[in-house]
Amino acid sequence: METTERLPNDLRHLTGPFDVVGDVHGCRVELAHLLRELGYEVAEDGAAHPDGRTAVFVGDLVDRGPDTPGVLRLVMGMVRAGTALCVRGNHDDKLARALKGRDVTVVHGLEKSLAQLARESAEFRAEVLEFLDALVPHYVLDGGDLVVAHAGLPERYHGVESAKSRALAVWGQSTGALDARGFPVRHPWFEEYSGTATVLYGHTPVEEPAWVNGTLCLDTGCAFGGALTAVRWPERDLVSVPARRVWYPR
């Protein structure tokens, strides 16, 4: 029997306009600053745009920065109110597993999130785990013209719900090599991309965002002292705010 049930990643009926925000990594003050620059009215536990725009977060809300609970409280409130969407990042995924008591290696800023959340109530930690567990790896938006995935996503996996699409969207494809800082070198999928949808993503910090074959990386290394960046869709206008300081040395 044919089913007409929409997959959880298929939100092509939502046409925006959107403000797609790069990796926040626990930088709550910078996030509030960026949202205000984008025209949002920001409170402790939420934000809304007077013109009805929707924020879309590319994942990696957590780790490295000084206020992961504050970021989560703000974004969770926005998602709950329908003023934001968020996809799952690899750091979000790992924090969820740590909160479940799974055996994970506590590195790359996870130690900061766990210490900060330990000062919060058990009820809040339970809400965080429920929120992180519900995040989908990627979204198809705006009639199929826009795809948001934390690590990017080749066209053949757009709208596909599978183990392979989840792994690529959340973690990307490693080449097996490490860079000078000890981080995995990712396969540059965007150099081969020729799809019709625009793909917005984060995951691998860049000095300046640049369009490549209809794709754009929005991770400008806020926690490393760079900037927090968003792009307005469909206008394609870039908006950035500088980090207040280096929160997590590379």
TrEMBL record:
It comes from the Bacteria. Residues 17-207 form the Calcineurin-like phosphoesterase domain. Pfam families: Metallophos (PF00149). This is Calcineurin-like phosphoesterase domain-containing protein.
